Amino acid sequence: MIIDTELINKILPVAEKAGKAILDIYYSGDKIHVSVKADHTPLTIADKASNSIITNGLLELFPGIPILSEEGVAVPYETRKEWDYYWCVDPLDGTKEFIYRRDDFTVNIALMHNNHPVLGIIYAPVYHALYYGSGATGSWLKKNDLPPEQLFADKAAKEWTAIGSRSHASEEEQAVLAMYPVTKTIAAGSSLKFCRIAEGSAHIYYRYGPTMEWDTAAGQAIAESSGAVMTAGDGTPFLYNKPLLLNSGFICKVL
User: What's the CATH fold of domain 160-254?
Assistant: First the structure.
């Protein structure tokens, strides 16, 4: 499969369409009804609407490539382990941000190959910010109607800005960050933390607590395509399509 700008440009409208559906609900003025899934995470009609748009859009464009989505049907590992290419999708990353009317929620779409993300798209609907990247194209930001801007991780910084979550933090994370030249800490929701590293406004993101594969796949592709690196917390490769889709800790940082 050839991953290039032409391929990416086919997928970007799918992410934007899903983002528009989310915004229609976000700005509707209606109370956001929240249900709780079996894993005790929240679910809204915006998650469902976005998932439907993305799933239908990807199947129409690429009917031979399977989809692994947070809000899709669970696929047994015995089936998944045979996949070569597949899509890893989080239709609404940062559902808590969405529920509490904080704007840092995103649409995440990643193309996976051999248990690694090779293309990532993250759309932040409120900001009209479309981040995307692959090893072949580099990482880019398209905002509003402006021309795309190529993104580069800030490898030259002597003082680092750490980025983390508003709703997750731990003493373990603070201990790891102390090993790096971190002089400032900022917060962001959802996968936007990876985008901040890709655009050079942050330098390290360490997560000790659990995440799911669809939370990190698109962000990893974008960060790595900008010149950053992401590994498991112990420095080993951060792999996907595991028997259990729960991630261990990880660190994403500039080289």
Answer: D-Maltodextrin-Binding Protein; domain 2 (3.40.190)
The dihedral of CA 60, 63, 68, 73: what is its sign?
Answer: positive
Written as six digits, the tokens of 8 are: 């990416």
Quote the tokens at residue 220. 């990893």
Exposed / middle / buried, residue 183 (Cβ in 10 Å: 0-12, 13-18, 19+): exposed
- The one-character DSSP state at 73 is -
In angstroms, the CA 197 to CA 4 distance is 22
Q: How far apart are CA 70 and CA 90, in angstroms?
A: 5
DSSP 197: H
For the record, the structure tokens of 227 come out as 């010149």
CATH code matching the domain that covers 5-151, chosen among 3.50.50.100, 3.30.190.20, 3.20.20.10, 3.30.540.10: 3.30.540.10
pLDDT in tens, 68-116: 999 999 999 999 999 999 999 999 999 999 999 999 999 999 999 999 9
